[in-house]
Specification:
Elements lengths: L3 E5 L5 E4 L5 E6 L4 H10 L1 H18 L7 E4 L2 E4 L3 H4 L2 H4 L6 H20 L7 E5 L6 E3 L4 E5 L7 H13 L8 H10 L3 H10 L9
Parallel strand pairs: 1-3, 6-8
Antiparallel strand pairs: 2-3, 4-5, 7-8
Helix pairs in contact: 5-6
Bound molecules: zinc ion (ZN).
Length: 207
C-alpha cells in the first residue's frame, strides 16, 4: 500500500486520507518504520473503508459539468441560459458572474429555508460562510453559519444541514440525544447523510 510518510514532532501515529485518495501517515520523528507499517496494517480496514468513500465521491463528481452548467438546489442550468432562469440576477449587475449569482441566491434562499423548517427550534442569526471543510455550524449563542455552497445541493440535503445545525441549539455535541432530536425533524437523516457525503467534493468548489 502506497502512502506518504510525514515525520514530525508528535507523540502518536496518525493516518488520514485526503480528497485525492492519498494515504497520509504522520509519525513521530524516531518511530521505527516497522512500527509504522504495523500500525498501518492494523488500520487496514479503516483505510479501505475510507478509500472506498473517496472513490465514491470521485465517481459521483464525474456527473457534474461545471464548465457548462450551474447547479442551484440540485437542479442543473445551462450557463448560457442563466439570465433566463434567474432574470433577477441581472438587476444586481452580476451577469456572467457566477460566483455572485450563487452568493446572492444563497443570501435570498437559505435564510428563508431556515425560517420554513425551523419548526420551533431556536436560532438567533444566520450568516453565510466560505468554509472548505464544513457545511454549517451553530454556536452556543444560537448563531448559525451556513456555507454558501449549500445553494448548489438538492433541497432535501440543505434541509438536513439546517435541521442538523438547529438541533445543536439543544445539544452542542453529536451525542445519541442529538441524533434522536435530528431524527424527530428528519426521519431519513441516515440516508441523507450518506448522500451528503457524496457531495463533499463541492466544499472545494470555487469560482
Ligand atoms: Zn454537527
Amino acid at each position: 500500500m502506497e502512502y506518504k510518510l510525514i515525520r514530525q514532532k508528535r507523540k502518536t501515529i496518525a493516518i488520514s486520507i485526503n480528497e485525492k485518495g492519498q494515504i497520509i501517515v504522520k509519525a513521530p520523528i524516531k518511530t521505527p518504520i516497522n512500527k509504522i507499517e504495523a500500525f498501518i496494517q492494523e488500520k487496514q480496514h479503516w483505510i479501505e473503508k475510507h478509500l472506498k468513500k473517496v472513490e465514491g465521491v470521485k465517481s459521483f463528481e464525474g456527473n457534474f459539468d461545471f464548465k457548462n452548467n450551474a447547479y442551484i438546489l440540485g437542479k442543473e442550468y445551462k450557463l448560457q441560459e442563466i439570465d433566463i432562469c434567474f432574470p433577477k440576477a441581472e438587476d444586481r449587475g452580476f451577469q456572467n458572474k457566477l460566483h455572485n449569482l450563487y452568493l446572492s441566491l444563497a443570501e435570498q434562499k437559505l435564510p428563508k429555508m431556515v425560517e420554513e423548517i425551523s419548526s420551533g427550534l431556536k436560532y438567533n442569526s444566520i450568516k453565510l460562510c466560505n468554509s472548505k471543510r464544513i457545511w454549517g455550524s451553530f454556536d452556543r449563542n444560537y448563531n448559525m453559519k451556513l456555507n454558501w455552497r449549500l445553494i448548489m445541493l438538492p433541497e432535501e440535503l440543505v434541509n438536513y444541514v439546517i435541521i442538523h445545525e438547529l438541533c445543536h441549539g439543544l445539544e452542542l455535541n453529536h451525542s445519541q440525544a442529538f441524533w434522536k432530536e435530528v431524527s424527530v425533524h428528519c426521519q431519513n437523516y441516515k440516508t441523507i447523510k450518506k448522500q451528503l457525503e457524496l457531495y463533499s467534493f463541492l466544499l472545494q468548489f470555487n469560482i
